[in-house]
Amino acid sequence: MSRETALPPVESALHENILVLTLNNPPVNALSVEVRCALLAAIDSAADNPAVEALLLVGAERHFCGGADIREFGQTPQPPALPDVVKRIEDSAKPVVAAIQGVALGGGLEIALAAHYRVALSGARLGLPEVLLGLLPGAGGTQRLPRLIGAQAALELMLSGRQLNAEEALKLGLVDHVGEADQALIAGLAYSRQLLAKGGGVRRTRDAQALSEQETQRAAIEAARQQVAQKSRGLLSPQHIIQAVETALDHAFEDGLREERRLFLECLDSPQRTGLVHAFFAEREVLKAPETRAAMPRPLDQVGVVGGGTMGAGIAVAALDAGLLVTLIERDQPALARGCENIEKVYDALISKGRLSAAEKNATLERLSASTDYQTLDQADLVIEAVFEDMAAKQAVFAELDRVCKAGAVLASNTSYLDINLIADSLSRPSDVIGLHFFSPANIMKLLEIVVPDKVAPEVVATAFALAKKLRKVPVRAGVCDGFIGNRILAVYRQAADHMMEDGASPYQIDQALRDFGFPMGPFQVADLAGGDIGWATRQRKAATRDPRARYVQIADRLCERGWFGQKTGRGYYLYAQGPRSASQDPEVLAIIDTERARAGITPRVFSNPEILRRYMAAMINEGANVVHEGIALRPLDVDITFIHGYGFPRHRGGPLKYADQYGLPQVLADIREFAEEDPLFWTASPLLVQLVERGENFDSLNHSH
Ligand code: 3H9
User: Fold this and answer.
1) pLDDT tens digits, 24-76
2) pLDDT digits over 106-160, tens only?
3) Per the domain annotation, does 287 fall within a domain?
4) Are both 544 and 663 inside the same structural domain?
5) Which parts of 79-140 fold into alpha helices (H)?
6) 566 and 528 in contact (C-beta within 8 Å)?
7) CB-based pocket (< 6 A), ligand 1
8) pTM for the whole thing?
9) What distance in angstroms lies between residue 42's CA and the mean position of ligand 1's atoms?
10) Which helix (H) or strand (E) holds 391?
C-alpha cells in the first residue's frame, strides 16, 4: 500500500510508563511488510526498556487495523510473517493492551487477540472477514478465537465474515471493555493505567478456556460442517476454517498454529482466493470512472420516479430506503394507485417476515409522494424514467421532463437496451441525460449500469455514481450499445446455450452444468424466472435486421406461441405445477425440442458437462472482450463486476474475464477456433482476444491502464 505520510509505519511514544505503539499505514493501517517489521522491532525494544511497564496498541486516524495487506497476496512473501509478529505480541512479558477504534478486521483483530487486553470504542467494528477473500484467519485467529469465545461463536464469525459492533463484542467476551472516550489513545491509556494500578499482569488468549467443554464444542463444529456442506458447496476456505477449529479443540496450541498455517497457505494458493481478491479490488476500482475523478456530483435529495411498475416501484423503494425524498409519477389515478401498492407490497413483505415494523414502514412512506402531474417534479434533483421499454413512450416522458424540471436536474432513463443518445438528442438539454440500468428486483440487486451517452456532462455522470453510493449499489460505467455491458454479453452466451440445446443437450443438462460451475441458476431457469414474453418481443422487433446467415434457434418461439412464458404462466422450459419453487422437467418441452431438431435437420449428439461449460464460457468471454475492445466497458474488471453483481456469476471465480485469465487466453482462443469450424459467423474471435494472445498478455494487464 502506498505511504501517504512521512510518519514511520509504527510510531512509538512513551506516555509515562506506557509505551504507545501506533500503526500508521493509511487509509486502513494494513499490515504491510514495513508495518510488520516496525511492529516487531518496537515490541522487542519495549522488552529491553525498563521505563516501559505496559504497551498500548492503537491505529492512526480512523481505524485500528484493516488486516493483512491484501495487495501482498500472491506476491513473494516478505518476512517477518504476520503469525510471528502476533506471537511476539502475545509472548510479551509486559502487559499489552489493544485499543480499537474504527475497524479491527482479519489480521488486525488477530493482533488484538494476541494482546492481553482489549478495549473497543463504541462505534468500533470487529471481524474476521478472511472467508470473503477465500482465506482463513492465518495469524492465530482460528486457534485463539475459539479458546476465547467458544467454537460456536468463533465459527459463526469466521464463516460469515460478519462484523460485530463493540457492544456485541463485549457480550461475547471478545473485548474486555467498551470505552466512552472518542479517541482510542485516551480510552486505551485510561484502561492501561487502571490495569497497572490494580496489578493486572500478562493474560494470554491461548490459555483461555472456552473450549474446555468438549462435547458442546464438537456439536457446534458438526453443525457448522453440515451448514457449510449445504450453503458453501465447493468453497475451500469455509471447510478449512472448520478443520482449523477442530484442530484447536483436539490439539495443543502450537500444533494448532502449524495446522492453521498449512491450511492458510493452501487457501492462499487456490484460484478461489485469486478470484475473490480480484472481486474485492474490482469493486473499489469500478468507482473510479474518469468523470468521478474530474467532476463533483450535483446535490441529490429529491428524486422523481416515472412509472410505478415492478421496476419503477423497486427503484422508488431503493431511493426511499436510502433516505431520499421520492415523488412517483404515473399517467392516471388507477396506475398511480397500483404503483403505490407495488411499493407498499415490498414493505409489507418485510413486515410479514419480521424484518420491519409497521411504524418504520410508515416513517419511510412519509418521504413518498405520488402524483399524475409532472409539474410536481419541478424541484427534483434527479428523475428516473422507468416506463416500458419503448423508445416513443420514453421520449414522450422525457419531453415532459424537459418542460417541467429545474435547470440542472439529472434526467435518467432506466432502460436495458435502448439507445440513450436518441433520448438525449430529443431534448433541449442533452448534457443532463444519462442511463441508469437497474436490475430486478431493483431494491435488492446490487448492480447499477451507469450508461454514458455522448453529450452527457461529467458532473451528471458523477451524480449517478453518487446516487449509486446512496442506494448502496455497485455502479459500473457502460457505453451506449444494444444491451450495454451485461445484456449484450448475455444475448450471445444465451445463443450459445440455444445452439447446444438444438444440437443435443437438454435445457436441464445445460442448467445443471452451470449450477455445478457455481451459478445459482442456469440460463433456462433464468429465462423462466424473467418471463419468455420479453425476449420474444425483442426477437420479433429485431427479426427484420437479423443477419440472414446467422443461426436462429426457434425453440423459445415454439414455447412462447403456446403461452408458456415461464414461472408466471406455470410452465416454460420447466413445469411449475405447484408454484415457482416446484420446477420439474417437462417431457412435452423435450418433445418440442426433438421436433425442432428434426425440422432443422439436426441429428442430436451427446454433450458432456465440461463441453457445455467450455462453449458457454467461450461465448461469454469472447463478447466480453468485444465489449472492452469497443470501449463499452472501461476495463475487463467492469465486465467482471457486472456479471458478479447482476448475472449470478460465481464470485469466487472472479468474473468471466478473470476466469478467462485463469483458464488461459490461448486456450479460450483455441476453443473458439475449434467451434468456428462448425459456425464461423457466430464464433468470430474478438480482435482484442486475438491481440492479447499474440502479445502473450491477459485481460488483467488492461485493468491497470486507466
Ligand atoms: C488477513 O488479514 C489475513 C490474515 O488473517 C492472515 C495473514 C497471514 N489491504 O474499502 P475502502 C484499501 S486478510 C490492502 O474503500 P472503507 C482499499 O483497496 C485481510 N488494501 O474503505 C482501498 O484502496 P483504494 C482481512 C486495503 O472505509 C482503501 O484501502 N481484512 C485493505 O469503505 C480504502 O478501502 C479485510 O478483508 C487491506 N486489508 O472500508 C478487510 N483494506 O483507495 C478488507 C482496504 O486504492 N477491507 N484496503 O481503492 C475492508 O473491508 C474495508 O476496506 C474497510 C474500510 C472496512 C477496512
Assistant:
1) 999 999 999 999 999 999 999 999 999 999 999 999 999 999 999 999 999 99
2) 999 999 999 999 999 999 999 999 999 999 999 999 999 999 999 999 999 999 9
3) no
4) yes
5) 82-91, 107-114
6) yes
7) 1, 27-28, 30, 66-71, 82, 103, 105-107, 110, 129-130, 133, 135, 137-139, 141, 281, 284
8) 0.96
9) 24
10) helix 391-404
